[in-house]
Amino acid sequence: MLTKIIRIIAVLFAVIAAATVLPQLYYTTFPPEGRSSHKNICYSEILGDFIISEYIYSTDKKQATGQTVCYDRHGKSYSRDSVARLLLLDNVSQLAYEGRFPDTICGIAVTPELVSSEAFSQYHSAQPGLYYGLCELRDQKSYTTRTLEPRDLFRITPEGIQFIVCATNQIDEEKSRLFTNCLTAADFRFPALRMWTSPDKNISEAIGYYVIDSKNELYCLSMNQSVPAVQKLEKPDSRNIRNITFGKSPDIRAILNTENGNMYIQHPDQSYTRLELPDSLRKSGRLTGNLFYRIFTLPAQNQQTTFVFDRNFRLVDSCTLYFQPQPQNTAGIFGEFLFPFHIGQTAWEGFYADWSPVKRFLWLNLALAGITLFYKRRNGYRLSNPFVITDILFVTIFGIYGLMGISAFPLKKSREEILNSQSPEL
Amino acid sequence: MKTLKHLIYKEWLKTRWFASIALLLNLGVLIYIFIALRSNFLSAGGTIYLSTLMTYKTQFFSLYRYIPLGIALLIGLSQFVPEITDKRIKLALHLPLHNLQIIYIMVVYGFVLLFLTMIPGILIFTGLISVYLPAEITIPVLQTMSPWLLGGFCAYFLIATIALEPAWKFRFLYILISYKVLTLFFMYLSIGNAVSLLPVLCLITGLSGIAPVYTSYRFNKGQL
Fold it and tell me: Which of A263, A277, A283 is nearest to A306 (CA)?
C-alpha cells in the first residue's frame, strides 16, 4: 500500500515536470506566426482628447514591416505631422529642433525649457517590496560637511531604535537613546511595522523616513545636524497604509495606498487628495506629469486604463486601451488541444498554472483515458482497483501529462490480477 | 543491533573518502566567501558596503549555490553506485532485516552524513559573517542559502531513487524528472526572496525522501 501511495506522489511529480517542460519545448519549436500590434495612448492638451498610435504590421509574413497609424476614440485618423502639433508637450524636443514650437499653449506662455522642467515620470507599486528592516538615515545637512555623512544603519526594535555602527557592528548606545527618547515623546509605539524612504538621495535626506508604528500610526523620522526630528502625520483615512512611494514632482510629496485599495496623493503641506481610481489593490501603475496634467496608467491583463487628472488631481478623462491577445495560428490551437495547462514561474506572479479552454483539451483527455482503460483491461488489471481508477482519473484530468506520469511509474499488479492475467481460461 | 552496526560500517567504508572531500570542499568554499566578504567590507568601508548590499541585494555568497548539489552527488554516487554494480545490494537485502529497514538504514546514513558534511560549515560561516553583518542581513542570507541546502538533500534522495530503479528506461525518465524538480531549488532569487518558497521546497524534499521505497521495492521484486 505504501509503495502505491508513493507511486501516486511520484506520478504527480512527473505531471508537474511534464507540464513545465513539454509546452515550453512545443512553443519553442512552433513559435506563433503572427505579431501582436503595439499601441500607445497620449492625451492631447489641444484636442482635450486621447490620441492612440498603433503600429500595424504588414500582412506579408516574410517581412516584418509595418506602419504607425494615429486615431482618436471616435476613429478619426490623424497624420503623423498633425499628431506632433496636437501633442505639443510630448514632442517638445522635436518641435523645438524644427523651430515649430509655439510661444503659447492653451493661452499660457511656454518655452521648451519650462515644458521640460515640468515633465516627470515615476512608477508606483501597490505592493511593498522586499524589506530588511535595516535602513540608512542621512542627515538633512549631510551635503555641508563630511562629519555628517552616515556611519551607521538603524533598526526599530520593540525596545526602541538602535543605530548600528557599520565598521564595528556594535550599537551606538548614546545616539540610540537620543532617538528613542524623541520617538517616545512623539507617542511612537515600538516596534516599527514598516519604513519607507525615497531612492532619490536628496529627497531621502530632506524627508527622511515615513514609519508605521505598532499601532499603525504614521510618523516622519529625519535627522537635522545629528538631532532627531520626529513628526506624527495624519493618515489619509482610517485604513492601514499598505505602501508608500515618494513623489518626483514638487507638488507630490508621496503617493499612498491604503488596505482597501484607495490611492492618495500627499501634497507638500501634508494634505491629501484621493485619486478617483478604481480599486488599486495589488495594481501598480505609472504616474507621468506635464505642464497641464497628471496622468496615471494602470495596466491589466490585455488592457491598460489611462486616467488624466488636472494639476489639482481632479479627474478630467479616462480611456481604456485593449490589446488583442497574441494571434492564434494552427500550432497554437493544436497546442491547446494537446496540453490541458502549462506551469510557469515569473518573479511577480510566482508559480502559476495557465489552463487551456476545457472544450479544446477535453476530447484528447477522454480519448487518452479510453486508451488507458483499454490497456489496463487488456493487461489484466482489475478495473475496480482504486489505484487503477486513480490512474484513469489522472489521464482524464491531466491528459498527456497524466499518461506520461503513469507510464513512467507503472502500477504493480496485485497477486490476484497476476494470476488472472496468466490463466485467463480460469 | 549487530546487523545495523555492520551495515553502517559497510556504508562508512564506501563513503568515508568522498565525505572527507565533501567536508573540505564545503568548508573551503564557505571560508573563501567569508574572506572575500571581509576584504570587500574593509576596502569599501562598512557603511558603503552594507548600503550597497541592501540597495542592490548582492549575492556575495553565490559561489556556494551548487556546492550542496556537488556534495550530494559525491556522497550519493559513492554510496549507491557500488551497490547497483552487479546488483550487490541484493546481498544486503538478504540480511535478517526487513528490506525497507535495510534501504532506510542506508538512506538515513547518507542523509546524516550529508547533514554532518554541510551544517557545521554553515554554522561556522554564520558565526563568522555575524562579526561583520547585522542580523537583518545574516538571516536573509541564510534564508537564501536554505533552498540550495534543501536541494542537496533532495538531490541525494533522488540519486538513491534512481540508483535503486532496476530498469534503465525508467532510470532515464527519473533523471529527467529529477532535473526539472531540482531546478526549483536553484532559481536565481535576490537575498531574502526565497522565504515564501521554503515550505514548498521542504515538502518536495520530504516527499523525495520516501521515493526510494518505490524503486527499491521494484528492485527487490526484479520488476522491469
Answer: A277
pLDDT given for residue A285 in this prediction: 86
Nearest to A130 among B192, B213, B214 (CB): B192
Q: Which residue of B has its CA nearest to A14?
A: B177
Q: How far is A313 from A295, CA to CA, in rounded Å?
A: 9
**B140 in contact with A at a CB cutoff of 8 Å?**
yes
Pick from A2, A132, A154, A351 the residue to mutate for testing the B interface (most B CBs within 10 Å): A132
Beta-carbon contacts of A153 under 8 Å, excluding residues fewer than 6 positions away, are A134, A135, A136, A163, A164, A166, B47, B50, B51, B54, B134
Residue of chain B minimizing CA distance to A153: B47
Interchain contact, B134 vs A6, CB within 8 Å: no
Which residue of chain A comes nearest to B192, CA vs CA? A130
Residue type, A63: Q
User: Could you tell me the pTM of the whole model?
Assistant: 0.76
Which residue positions in chain B have pLDDT lower than 70?
Answer: 86, 222-224
Q: Which of A20, A166, A168 has the CB atom closest to B180's CB atom?
A: A20
> In terms of Cα–Cα distance, which of B107, B156, B121 is closest to B8?
B107
Probe site for chain B from A1, A2, A4, A6 (most B CB atoms < 10 A): A6
CA dist A332 and A379 (Å) reads 36
**Closest to B212 measured CA to CA, from B119, B83, B74, B118:** B83
Q: Chain A: nearest CA to B212, how far in angstroms?
A: 9
The pLDDT of residue A425: 46
d(CA B202, CA B153): 10
Residues of chain B contacting A413 with CB distance shorter than 8 Å: none
Q: Which of B76, B65, B44 is nearest to B162 (CA)?
A: B76
User: For A34, which DSSP code?
Assistant: S
Residue with cell 535478517: B96
From the list A44, A42, A41, A40, the residue with the least C-alpha distance to A105 is A44
- Helix (H) / strand (E) containing A325: none
A298 in helix, strand or coil? strand
Angle between helix axes B135-164 and B46-56 (nearest 10 degrees) is 50
The per-residue b/e assignment along A87-107, b for 16 or more CB within 10 angstroms, e otherwise, is bbbbbbeebeeeeebeeebee
Cβ-defined contact of A167 to B180 (cutoff 8 Å):
no
Q: What SS3 class is residue A342?
A: strand
- Of A267, A240, A265, whose CA–CA distance to A255 is shortest? A265
List of chain B residues whose C-beta atoms are within 8 Å of the C-beta of residue A136: 47, 51, 54
Q: How far apart, in Å, are the Cα atoms of A129 and each of A106, A203, B181? A: 41, 19, 28
Beta bridge partners of A406: none
User: pLDDT tens digits, residue range A29-41?
Assistant: 887 665 556 888 9
Flag if A17 and B180 touch (Cβ within 8 Å): yes
CB neighbour class for A177 (10 Å; exposed up to 12, middle 13-18, buried from 19):
middle
pLDDT at B54: 81
Cell (9 digits) for B210 = 520516501
Average pLDDT for A67-86: 89
Partner-chain contact B136 A165, CB within 8 Å: no
| Chain B residues lying within 8 Å of A133, measured CB to CB | 136
* B133 contacts A13? CB cut-off 8 A: no
Taking the CA of residue B46 and the nearest CA in chain A, the distance in Å comes to 5
Query: What percent of chain A has a predicted confidence (pLDDT) above 90?
Result: 45
A56 Cα to chain B: minimum distance (Å): 37
Q: With contact defined as beta carbons under 8 Å apart, do A70 and A53 qualify? A: yes
